[in-house]
Amino acid sequence: MSASDPALGRSEPRISWINGWRRTHHGLRLQTVVQHGHDTSMEQSAASLLLTRSQAFDNVLGTFSGAPWEIIRIQVDDLSRMLSLKRPPGGLFRRTVPQSRSSRHVVFVAEGGSGTAYLPAALLIRELWLWSADALDALLTPASLELFLSSSCEHEELTLDACGPFARARGANLRRLSWLAQCSDARDSWASVLTYANAEVLSIRLPRASMVAWGIGVRLRHGILVSRLASSRISFTLPIEGVPMRIKGRVTRCPFPPERMSDPQPDFWHASRA
User: What is the 3-state secondary structure (H, E, C) of 31-46?
Assistant: First the structure.
C-alpha cells in the first residue's frame, strides 16, 4: 500500500515520533520518525518544530495500529515531583514505531483520578517556555537568562530589565519572565532544556508549578500516551507580584495571576479515529 492510498487518510508523510536532538554543523536539530504509508524513515527537522506543532506525534493508520483517540483530564499539583519513565520510552510502543526503541525523548508520567497519562517532554517544554519564536531562540542560546534578563533594586523596589528576544514579550508572558528572574527552579528548568539538548536528549527539569489540562492521545496497555495538550493552565507562585519590568526604556508591571477560573474545557476537536 502506498503513502497515497486513500485508506491511509492522508497522502503526505507525517511525523510519528520525535526521537531526540541531534547536534549538526547547522546547530541543534530534531531527529524525527516520519511515516510514509506503512514505511518509516529517520529524518532531521528544525528546532522550530517544537513551536509550530501542537502535537508530539501523528496518529496514522499503521501507527499505533490505528488505535482510537482518547481524551483524558490531567491535573498535576507539582510538576517538579512528576517522574519520568524508568525504562526507555520506546518500550511503550516499540511494536508500532520500531525506530522509537532507541528514543532519547523522555516521557513523564502523570497519575490521577482519570488514569495514567504519559506526557512526552516536547509537550511540557512547549507549555512552559515556548510562548513565541523569540522564546525558542532564547531557550537554545547559551546563558540566555544572564544575557537577556537582569534585575536591580531601585528605590527599594525590585525592577527587571528584558532585552533581546525577551523584549517582545507581552501580557501574561511577562509573568513568565518574572518567574524566571525570581525563582531558581524556573531558571533551572529553562537551562535544562539546552543542557539535555547538548547531550542529544529531549527532556526538561520540571519546575515547581501546577498544571491542569486536557490531553488527547492513544491508549496503551497501562495508560494514555498523550499527543496533544489543550486548554492547559500552568500556575506558579512568585515571591513578589507586580514587579516593574523595563523593556526598551518603557516600564510596565508584570500582570498579577488571573483569578481562579473554572476547570478548563478541551478546545480541540472531538477525538476520532484517523
Answer: EEEEEECCEEEEEEEE
pLDDT tens track for 133-176: 999 999 999 999 999 999 888 767 889 999 999 999 888 899 99
The pLDDT of residue 192 is above 50:
yes
Cβ neighbours around 25 below 10 Å, total:
4
pLDDT of residue 1 exceeding 50:
no
Q: What is the pLDDT of residues 43-68, one digit of tens each?
A: 899 999 998 877 777 654 334 545 67
Lookup: cell for 27: 546547530
How many other CB atoms are found less than 10 A from the CB of residue 143?
A: 9
Whether 2 maps to a domain, the answer reads no
The reply to whether 136 falls in a domain is yes
User: What sign results for the dihedral spanned by CA atoms 112, 235, 231, 65?
Assistant: negative
Q: How far apart are CA 238 and CA 130, in angstroms?
A: 20
In a domain, 71, yes or no: yes
Q: How many domains does the chain have?
A: 1
Distance from C-alpha of 88 to C-alpha of 101, rounded to nearest angstrom = 7
Do residues 100 and 202 lie in contact, with contact meaning Cβ atoms separated by under 8 Å? no
Residue 76, strand partner residues: 211
